[in-house]
Specification:
- This protein has helices at residues 10-22, 51-61, 76-89, 176-186, 203-211, 220-228, and strands at 3-6, 26-30, 44-46, 66-69, 93-95, 109-112, 127-130, 147-152, 165-169, 190-194, 214-218.
- With 235 residues, the protein is of the alpha/beta class.
- It has 2 domains: 3-97, Rossmann fold (3-Layer(aba) Sandwich); 109-218, Rossmann fold (3-Layer(aba) Sandwich).
- The strands form 2 sheets. The protein has a 6-stranded parallel beta sheet with strand order 6-11-10-7-8-9. A 5-stranded parallel beta sheet has the order 3-2-1-4-5, with helices on both faces.
- Helix 4 (176-186) packs across helix 5.
- The protein is elongated, with a radius of gyration of 19 Å.
- The protein starts with a strand and ends in a 7-residue tail after the last helix.
- Bound molecules: NADP nicotinamide-adenine-dinucleotide phosphate.
- The site of NADP nicotinamide-adenine-dinucleotide phosphate has 23 residues, from strand 2, helix 2 and helix 3.
């Protein structure tokens, strides 16, 4: 038996560790989106498979007998495709799903259906912390009335695309205290997150609550993804 673990999350690392300690043969796979992802304790490959055909070929060539999809909740393409290919090839697939975050007492969240809507809710001059990653940065082009801080793991290849913002480099995990200190130091008014769920990256929400900010919480994509690509047992 050889398990393919589609990685990109802290939970994928834990599952890899579980396999390693129990002698389960497993291969980890990173998309290559982050230059130096935290290492897995199993043999690991990097980079896309080259579309659905490349994925099928890889599964056959490496005699993969089961797939664990522990990719990020917003990585909807790889999740959808893994589900479809696993069904087609008769391979068992386990999809790791996190319960999504829900607001706690004292939280002030706005839920958006698309990142571009954030501009409708953010006041002129506000300092906005974008914890949504580099990939969706272009969706905030209409926030020209605010100050933007976009956190990402790797050094950016180029300048920040607009004069009203900057990148901030940071590698998770981040503690609540560190997040709170950071938000206070930067004078953050609004935190924009993807509702990715889980405990590891929840610290920013707890810090925002403590610091008295509100969150613009993009959760629609999670809902769509959950409905379309949940584990095969639930259809
Ligand atoms: N989206 C987020 O907010 C987010 C946040 C944190 C981490 N990540 C991680 O970053 C990766 C890319 O995210 P995304 O949103 O761009 O994904 P995506 O849109 O679902 O996938 C795009 C393409 O990336 C490749 N890919 C994705 N995950 C892969 C993996 N684990 N191993 C090998 N190839 C993979 C596949 O390329 P081919 O078609 O060539 O096979 C896939 O078609 C994911 O693995 C995810 O876990 C994403």
């Amino acid at each position: 038996m050889t398990v393919l673990i589609l990685a990109g999350t802290g939970e994928a690392r834990q599952i890899a560790q579980y396999c390693a300690t129990r002698g389960i043969r497993a291969i980890g796979s990173f998309a290559g989106a982050t230059r130096q992802p935290a290492k897995l304790s199993i043999c690991t490959r990097h980079g896309g498979f080259g579309g659905a055909d490349g994925f099928r070929e890889y599964l056959k060539a490496h005699q993969i007998t089961a797939i664990v999809d522990a990719t990020h909740p917003f990585a909807s393409n790889i999740t959808r495709r893994s589900f479809e290919v696993a069904q087609e090839m008769g391979l068992p697939l386990l999809r790791f799903e996190r319960p999504e975050w829900v607001p706690m007492a004292g939280d002030h969240w706005l839920t958006l259906t698309d990142e571009t809507e954030a501009a409708d809710h953010i006041k002129a001059g506000a300092v906005v912390f974008l914890a949504t990653g580099r990939q969706s940065l272009s969706k905030f082009a209409n926030l020209s009335h605010a100050r933007l801080i976009c956190r990402q793991i790797d050094q950016p290849d180029g300048e920040f695309p607009w004069s009203n913002g900057q990148y901030l480099i940071g590698r998770p995990p981040f503690s609540i205290t560190d997040e709170e200190d950071l938000f206070r130091r930067l004078g953050v008014d609004v935190l924009v997150v993807k509702n990715a769920g889980g405990t590891a990256s929840r610290t920013k929400l707890d810090a925002a609550t403590n610091a008295g900010n509100f969150c613009v919480n993009d959760c629609q994509t999670v809902t769509q993804w959950g409905a379309k690509c949940s584990n095969p047992a639930r259809g």
